[in-house]
């Protein structure tokens, strides 16, 4: 899966390849860097998701090996927020709404910059309303 992707990047000019004996050394080109910077928000979101998946996989490996999984980074976990996670806070309705929000945010992770700003405004308004704050205009 990796080599066809590298070949494609080379074909469109975003990567260059140098043969060193039996190995190939791929490097990003200036055009590739420009394209990458133009997609920075998407790339960052993807890398964050991959890091989260890696953490979840590590927790699963630990759990399967009989160790305790470290799920303190998962806000639906009972251990999240110093033990005030899912089981300590919230009715089933709150937990369902939290999962729905999480799912919606994941679905919009590749959204345009304008859409991401719109989502951020919605989230800020919701957070203020949850805290009981009102904005004076």
Textual characterization of the structure:
This protein has 137 residues and is mainly α. The chain has a domain of 38 residues. It is 61% helix and 9% strand. The chain has six helices and two strands. A two-stranded antiparallel ribbon has the order 1-2. The chain is flat. The model has no long low-confidence stretch (mean pLDDT 82).
Task: Output the helix-strand order.
Answer: HEEHHHHH
User: How large is the share of residues in beta strands?
Assistant: 5-15%
Rg value: 21 Å
Q: Provide mean pLDDT, rounded.
A: 82
Global outline: flat
Low-confidence stretches: none
The class by helix and strand makeup works out as mainly alpha
Q: How widely separated are the two ends?
A: 53 Å
Using DSSP, what is the number of strands? 2
Main sheet strand line-up: 1-2
Helix content: 55-70%
Most strands sheet: 2 strands, antiparallel
Number of helices: 6
Give the SSE map.
Layout: H1 2-11, E1 15-20, E2 23-28, H2 30-38, H3 40-64, H4 80-83, H5 92-107, H6 113-131
Antiparallel strand pairs: 1-2
What labels describe this entry?
two-stranded antiparallel sheet, 61% helix, mainly alpha, 137 residues
Brief sketch in words of this structure:
This protein has a domain at 1-38. The chain is 61% helix and 9% strand. The protein has helices at residues 2-11, 30-38, 40-64, 80-83, 92-107, 113-131, and strands at residues 15-20, 23-28.
């Amino acid at each position: 899966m990796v080599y066809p992707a590298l070949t494609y990047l080379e074909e469109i000019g975003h990567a260059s390849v140098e043969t060193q004996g039996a190995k190939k050394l791929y490097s990003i080109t200036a055009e590739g860097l420009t394209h990458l910077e133009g997609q920075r928000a998407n790339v960052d979101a993807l890398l964050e998701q991959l890091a989260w998946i890696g953490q979840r996989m590590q927790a699963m490996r630990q759990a399967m090996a009989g160790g305790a999984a470290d799920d303190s980074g998962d806000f639906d976990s009972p251990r999240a927020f110093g033990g005030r996670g899912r089981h300590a806070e919230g009715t089933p309705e709150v937990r369902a709404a939290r999962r729905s929000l999480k799912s919606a945010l994941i679905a919009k992770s590749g959204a345009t910059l304008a859409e991401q700003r719109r989502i951020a405004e919605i989230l800020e308004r919701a957070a203020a309303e949850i805290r009981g704050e009102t904005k004076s205009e």
